[in-house]
Specification:
This protein is of the alpha/beta class. The protein folds into four domains: 159 residues, 3-Layer(aba) Sandwich (Molybdenum Cofactor Biosythetic Enzyme, Chain A); 57 residues, Molybdopterin biosynthesis moea protein, domain 2, CATH 3.90.105; 88 residues, Beta Complex (Molybdopterin biosynthesis moeA protein, domain 3), CATH 2.170.190; 74 residues, Beta-clip, CATH 2.40.340. Helix content is 18%, strand content 30%. The longest helix is centred in the C-terminal third of the chain and has 19 residues. The chain is elongated, with a radius of gyration of 31 Å. The chain starts with a helix and ends in a 6-residue tail after the last strand.
Length: 407
């Protein structure tokens, strides 16, 4: 049995970003850039007006005041999108819309609400500063600047920036192909009636949902009976089309726990089996060529936390998101915790911020590995160190914020 950090390291050593592919821009949301993006031209491309107002040459205003206003005749109105070249005449002004090109001989834009307009003449009572309300060419980015680095997640603002730069296609890391196999004679689909001795399966829908939260649609999702031949057939089938296979159940030491033996018979190399954590101790991790196989325990909380702690970071790395880490901070424990020493325990908790700014955390009700309600209500994991067996109320503990839905 290995410790938590050893398991993380062994998985990371087997994980690399997948190959880069090119996709149409509107299909890239949630993907990760596999190239650096540089500007092909300055941003903005031209000098433009930041407001609706009047374009002037400051020298034409001759120190206006409320007692000595200056009037300028409107030469024309320049609309946004007008591509004609305009030049301001002496002692004139242009009406101009937000985003419109700045004409020649203009060095300031006066906001519409700061002047009076009467019969085609604009009355100015204050002197604007040179350059005011003008968006300068290249003020945001110069030609050749690095705009987005490889590894950037494509969010709506990132996609918008790529669109503004004229990228019709984008090079991104391919998303992993993942299959989920849940084993158990007692399992029925959540929509089916159950008899005494049977249970509605929550592992398949919750693991499929966990994948969907990362923008991944599973290649296969199936429930299989605890029979070697059926488990072998399912894993063999999914190996052909998957980068990652997740099995749930059948990895402990029971008479019907066949997953490890089946993996061995299919040429899957065991990297480790069993981790000194709770829940999730029977976790299995193996490889075949470049394919990764995770066998998570069948108890619903253990299955989901194994996904969250080990499989989710693996998927993100494969998608090129190498720097993303869960947020860990400290909080005051509001009730005693106890356990047997020997395993790092992830206690499901509710973290809140008091009016005085202090962070406090309480364990949720239902901490057994089959009690998914305690996980459903949790927003964090309290780290209960391996070597400790008791933490008293009022102690400072580490808490790991949980974020199931990624952006």
């Amino acid at each position: 049995m290995i410790n938590y950090h050893e398991a993380q390291k062994l998985i990371e050593e087997q994980t690399k970003p997948l190959i880069a592919i090119k996709l149409p821009l509107m299909e890239t949301l949630g993907y990760t850039l596999a190239e650096n993006i540089f500007t092909k031209h300055p941003i903005p491309m031209f000098n433009s007006s930041a407001v609706d107002g009047f374009a002037v040459n400051v020298n034409d205003l001759h120190l206006p005041s409320s007692k000595n206003p200056v009037s300028l005749k409107v030469q024309a109105v320049i609309q946004t999108g007008d591509t004609r070249k305009h030049s301001l005449k002496k002692n004139h002004t242009f009406g101009i819309m937000t985003g419109a090109v700045i004409p020649r001989n203009v060095d300031a834009i006066v906001m519409k609400e700061d002047v009076a307009e009467i019969d085609g003449t604009v009355i100015f009572k204050t002197l604007p500063k040179v350059g005011i309300n003008i968006r300068g060419r290249g003020r945001e980015l110069s030609k050749g600047d690095l705009v987005l680095s490889s590894g950037t997640i494509i969010t709506p603002p990132v996609l918008g920036l790529l669109a503004s730069l004229g990228h019709a296609t984008v090079k991104v890391y391919r998303k992993p192909k993942v299959s989920v196999i849940v084993t158990g004679n007692e399992l029925k689909k959540f929509s089916e009636r159950v008899k005494i001795g049977q249970i509605r399966d929550s592992n398949l829908p919750s693991l499929l949902a966990a994948l969907q939260s990362l923008g991944i649609q599973a290649e296969y999702g199936m429930i299989v009976k605890d029979q070697k031949s059926k488990i072998k057939k399912a894993i063999h089938k999914t190996l052909r089309k998957s980068d990652i296979i997740i099995t749930a159940g059948g990895v402990s030491v029971g008479d019907y726990d066949f997953v490890k033996d089946v993996c061995s018979s299919l040429g899957i190399k065991t990297v480790f089996w069993r981790v000194a954590i709770k829940p999730g101790k029977p976790l299995f991790f193996g490889t075949k060529c470049k394919k990764l196989i995770f066998g998570v325990p069948g108890n619903p909380v253990a299955a989901l936390l194994s996904f969250y702690l080990f499989i989710k970071p693996t998927l993100l790395r494969m998608m090129g998101q190498t720097e993303k880490q869960n947020i860990i901070q400290t909080a005051v424990l509001e009730s005693d915790l106890k356990k047997r020493a020997g395993r790092l325990e992830f206690v499901r908790g509710i973290l809140i911020k008091k009016p005085d700014g202090k962070l406090v955390v309480n364990p949720t009700k239902g901490q057994d590995s089959h009690m998914i309600g305690g996980l459903a209500n949790a927003n964090c994991l309290i780290h209960f160190p391996k070597e400790e067996n008791f933490i008293s109320k009022g102690s400072i503990v580490k808490v790991e914020l949980m974020n199931w839905v990624e952006q």
